[in-house]
Amino acid sequence: MRFLKLSTSVFFFLILTNSFGQTQDNTWLFTANTNIINLLGDNVEQAVNIGGPALSLSRYLGGGVSIGGQYSLGQVNNFNDSFSYTSVDGILKVNISSGSFVPYLVGGYGFSQFADGTEKEGFFPSTETSRTIFGGIGFNVFLSDELALNFQSTYRKMNENDGFDHLQHFAGLSYSFGSSDADKDGVSDKKDKCPNVPGLKEYEGCPDTDGDTIIDKEDKCPEIPGLPEFDGCIDTDGDGIADPDDNCPEEAGSVETNGCPDTDGDGVIDNEDKCINEAGPEENNGCPWQDSDGDGINDNEDLCKDEAGTPENNGCPELDGEIVKTLNEFGSRINFAASSFKIFGRKTLDNLEKIKALLMENPDGNLLIEGYASSDGDEAYNNQLSKNRAEAVRNHLIGLGIPAERLEVQGYGEGDPIGDNASPEGRAINRRVQFKTKRN
User: Fold this and answer.
1) What is the fold, at CATH topology level, of the domain defined by 321-438?
2) Mean pLDDT in consecutive groups of 10 residues from the start of the chain, 440 residues
3) Distance between CA 439 and CA 406 in Å, rounded?
C-alpha cells in the first residue's frame, strides 16, 4: 500500500510539473506482451503465472504524456485453485526521457477478474469482476524508429473482496506509428524539411522538380536542370554568370557589364553602343565625339561646333588681331561730350560706317564694345555713363546692319584712362569707346 501511494504521488507530480516531458516521432504506440502475474497478500502462493496476450494502444498527446487502454489475459494458479485472469484498463503514461531508451511512469484505473466458475456477488453482472487502481514503471528500448522492446511492472489494488491484489508484469514488443505526414510524401512532418510540399526521402521530404540534386527551395531555377555553382541554374553562354543574373544569357560578357559583350571596351554594352568597334562615352551612345567644323575642338566642348574657332574662344571664331587694331583706330576717333552719350558729328558717323564695313567683310567673330568716362562726376554716375556710351555705339551699328548677337557692351567708368584727367584735353580723350574680340 505504501508503494502504491508513493508511485501515485511521483506519477502525478511529473504530470503537473512536466519536468521531463518529451515528444515522440510517432503518435500511436501498440504493444503486444506476455502477461506475468504475482499474487500478493495472505494465503496466496508466491508463484509466477505466465500468460497472455497483453495488448495496449496509447496516443501521444505532447509533453511526454500519452493516454490509452490495455487488455490482458492469463491463467493464475493458487495452491489447488485455478483462475482465468482478465484485465481491462484505461492508462496514463509519462515519459521520463527521450532517445533510444525511454523510461516511463504508468498508472490508471480499470477492472480485474479472477474467474473460477463459481457464482459470486461483484461489481458487474459478471460477478467475479473487481474495480482496480494501479501504478508502476516501464521502459521501451527502441531498436528502430518504430520498433522497441517493452517492459512494464505495475502494482494493482482491487477494491472488491473477491480477487487478489497483485503485481502485473509485461514483456514484449512495442510498435509506434501514425506520425503526421501533411504532404503525404512518406516522410513524417517531424523529419520533413518541406512538410507542406511532397518531396523525396533522399532529400528529407523536399522536392527536386528538375532532378539536378538541388532541392527546389535552394534552386533558383527549379524547373531547369543546373549546376550547384550556379544555384541550380545554367550558364548558356559560358561566361561564368548564371542565366537569371545575365542580361545577355546567349552572348558571353563580363561581370562588369552584367554578362553582356562590350567589343570596344568603352563600358557601353554592344546592344546599346552605336559604334561597337570604336570606343566612345556613354553620353554619346558609345561613339567618339566628332569635330564637325574641323577646328580641332570636339563638338562636346565646342560652343560653335558649326563654325571653326579657337581653343581660347571655346571653339568659336574670333576677329583677327589686325582687324581689331583697325577697329580701335576708328574707335579712337569716336568721342563724346561731357556727361553725354549722344553720337554726333560727321567724323564720328564716318568712322562708324568704316567699322560697319570692316565687320561686314569679316563675318566670323564677335565684338565687345567697352565704354569709358572721364573723372567728372562720381563713380556710380560714370559707370552708368560709360555703359550708355557703349550701348549707343552698339545700337548705331545694329542700325547699320550688324547682327545684334555679334555685339556686346561693358562699361568701365573712369577706369583705365588714356589721358590726364587733370586737363580738359585729357578728359576729352578719356570719354571714348574701345573694341575687343568677344570670347564666349
Assistant:
1) 60s Ribosomal Protein L30; Chain: A; (3.30.1330)
2) 41 36 66 95 86 94 94 93 93 93 97 81 64 96 92 92 87 88 83 91 94 94 94 94 93 91 92 90 89 80 72 67 78 85 89 88 86 91 94 94 92 92 91 82
3) 11
- Distances from the Cα of 125 to the Cα of 113, 128, 161, 294, angstroms: 12, 8, 15, 125
Burial bucket for residue 411 (CB in 10 Å: 0-12, 13-18, 19+): buried
The grid coordinates listed for 434 are 574701345
- The CATH 2.40.160.20 portion of the chain extends over 2-177
Cell of residue 339, nine digits: 556727361
| Strands 407-411 and 81-95, sheet pairing | unpaired
The full length of the chain comes to 440
Grid cell, residue 357, equals 564695313
Intervals of CATH 3.30.1330.60 along the chain: 321-438
Q: Kindly report the pTM of this predicted structure.
A: 0.44
381, containing H or E segment: helix 379-399
Cα distances (angstroms) measured from residue 409 to each of 336, 363, 379, 384, 428? 17, 18, 18, 12, 21
C-alpha to C-alpha distance for 315 and 296, rounded to whole angstroms: 8
DSSP string, 228-240: GGGTTB--TT-SS
Buried b (16+ CB within 10 A) or exposed e, 170-184: bbbebebeebebebe
So what CATH class is 2-177?
A: mainly beta
Q: Which amino acid does the sequence have at 153? A: S
